[in-house]
Amino acid sequence: MIKDNDNLSDISNMNYSAFVGLINERNRPSGGIKAIHIVAVNAMLNERKRMLEIGSTTGFTSVNMNLLTGCQCVGIDINQKSVDESIKYAKKQGAESRVKFIQGDATKLPFKDGEFDVVWASNVTSFISDKEKAISEYLRVLCPGGTLVVVPIYYIKEVPDTILQDVSSAIGAKVEKWDKSFWMKLFTDISTRLNTNIELYYDQNFKYADRSDSISEYVDQIIENNINDQTEAIKEQLKSRFSYFMKLFNENLKYAGFSILLFQKRLEKDEAELFLSKPMLDI
Questions:
Q1: Is residue 136 part of a domain?
Q2: For residues 6 and 10, what is the distance between their CA atoms, to the nearest angstrom?
Q3: Domain that holds residue 56
Q4: This model's pTM is above 0.85
Q5: CA distance between the termini of the chain
Q6: Could you tell me which of 17, 39, 230, 263 has the C-alpha nearest to residue 144?
């Protein structure tokens, strides 16, 4: 239990990665449950497939992918508290026999070559300093014909430096003014250096909705529902810190978008396509 007299300052200085494990927020990927549905359909997941989630935080993606498709899921996260909460969540949802969570480093994955049909990396690569090592590990444990899922967050408008600095401090990792082309080039260039063929077969772009009007209600709901063994003083401190994060992230996302990108690992690289297509907005 957190004590009032010696941990209030810790809460005020805690970064988001540690904080989310403390309050057991069900941290979701960009796009939430809809993004999971999109990937389930387009990566053709089913009960015969195995998925690895890199940076599984508190378990939402892996558990819900299993509930939706029946696939076997393994989540790995650097934060042990998040892993512990993920295990509890899987049990609550009746998925503990089909979804496993372990603590570990994305740059040193404890799995065999080609062990997984799908590797879900979402936006976690943003937080990893050695991106080349991490991506090489994603591709190593992905089987030929398997799908690498990347859901990067990037800037679509010029973001103020002050927001960039505050977000970097909040998440404990330096955030750069990356755009979508940075992420596309990063994955394709690294795969080329590794002599591993990947082909982009699904690419959909999104922007974020402004949620300013919903932050206060959301913060109250999460803290009141998830924190039952603390004093009111601690709860108020948690709400204050949580509100700070949510308001900061909401402001940051006004300048950002994200994409759902699915790459297939190929044994042989095919020739380029000439006649591409776009959805028809009006018929």
A1: yes
A2: 8
A3: 16-213+258-266
A4: yes
A5: 60
A6: 263
pLDDT single digits (tens) 32-89: 999 999 999 999 999 999 999 999 988 999 999 999 999 999 999 998 988 999 999 9
Residue 173 is which amino acid? A
Say how far apart CA 246 and CA 11 lie, in whole Å: 15
Whichever domain contains 26, its CATH number is 3.40.50.150
Give the Cα separation of 280 and 57 in Å (integer).
37
The most distant pair of C-alpha atoms in the chain lies apart, rounded to whole Å, by 66
Per the structure, the count of domains in the chain is: 1
Q: Is residue 7 in a domain?
A: no
Q: Report phi then psi at 275, rounded to 5.
A: -90, 95
What totals of helices (H) and strands (E) does the chain contain, helices first? Answer: 10, 8
* Angle at alpha carbon of residue 259, lines to 261 and 209, rounded to 5°: 155
**8-state DSSP, 212:** G
Residue 132 lies in a domain: yes
Which residue has 């372990």 as its token pair? 102
**What is the rounded distance in angstroms from the CA atom of residue 13 to the CA atom of residue 8?**
9
What CA–CA distance (Å, rounded) separates 250 from 106? 27
Instruction: Specify if 119 maps to a domain.
Output: yes
Residue with token string 């480093």: 105
- The helix/strand/coil state of 169 is helix
pLDDT tens digits, one per residue of 226-254: 888 888 889 999 999 999 999 999 999 99
**Sign for the pseudo-dihedral over CA of 19, 21, 26, 30:** positive
